[in-house]
Specification:
alpha/beta, four-stranded parallel beta sheet, 8 strands, about 40% helix
């Protein structure tokens, strides 16, 4: 990838970085440094896969206006399937900015259009309570995630852009995180989408959290929220992402 010029990434706080040096200690920075790429990383804490997909498609569209497809490498770390977003002008949308700008809600995909209200199960505002009580389901959430993955893969393939994907945790149900959602991969509404995903573009791991926990348990993760520490991000990049990218296209 040394001939490429730009690394575009997206994801949640696992991609943004969760220390005081935001976006300076996470895997995108280590990948960009290794391959000498300019980094564009719109990742933000707590966002779901719908916003990640929209960010990638929008940012790639902008980059293609002044860059060739072969000059762009995309890396995506998909987030929790139970995180959602709603495009709303409602004043009921919870407005806040968390410490160090890790989460901004509502947020934007297109600059200066902060109408995307983020929702996740831990929120206590009225909109989130209503959504998770009456509208949320595990199958429906996984369907949305699969659809977003397929949309991004199709978009990048059409535009002839190299990419790799992974997950922040095991969102597909084989280990700790995913087991909470039951065996939804076999549900007919999920299976036909899952069967069309190109998993050869995914890193050969179940999730970033699981990999760091299994391979660098003593100093790879924070003690409180299980986010990778800079050391965990660095080792994840060196031992998983770089070998995968080098093997994928021959370096």
């Amino acid at each position: 990838y040394m001939d490429k010029k730009i690394l575009l990434t997206s994801g949640c706080s696992f991609t943004m970085g969760s220390s005081k040096n935001l976006k300076k200690d996470s895997w995108p920075k280590y990948v960009a440094t290794h391959y000498n790429l300019r980094l564009r990383n719109p990742a933000m804490g707590s966002i779901g896969n719908g916003l990640i997909a929209k960010q990638i498609i929008y940012q790639t569209t902008q980059l293609l206006k002044i860059n060739k497809p072969e000059d762009i490498l995309v890396g995506i770390m998909w987030s929790g399937i139970d995180r959602h977003e709603i495009y709303t002008l409602s004043k009921e949308a919870k407005k806040y900015v968390e410490t160090d700008g890790l989460i901004e809600n509502p947020t934007e995909v297109v600059p200066r259009k902060k109408y995307w209200s983020i929702m996740h199960p831990a929120q206590t505002d009225s909109m989130a309570k209503i959504y998770y009580k009456y509208l949320h389901s595990n199958v429906g959430s996984l369907v949305n995630t699969m659809f977003n993955i397929l949309a991004v893969q199709s978009f990048l393939k059409v535009n002839k852009i190299d990419y790799f994907m992974t997950t922040y945790m095991d969102i597909f149900g084989t280990k700790e995180y995913g087991m909470r959602f039951g065996n939804t991969l076999k549900d007919p509404d999920v299976k036909y989408l899952n069967d069309n995903i190109d998993y050869s573009k995914f890193l050969p791991i179940s999730g970033c959290y699981e990999w760091v926990k299994e391979n660098h348990p003593e100093n790879g993760l924070t003690g409180s929220d299980n986010h990778p520490l800079p050391y965990g991000h660095q080792k994840f990049t060196e031992e998983v992402i770089i070998p995968f990218c080098d093997k994928l296209v021959g370096g």
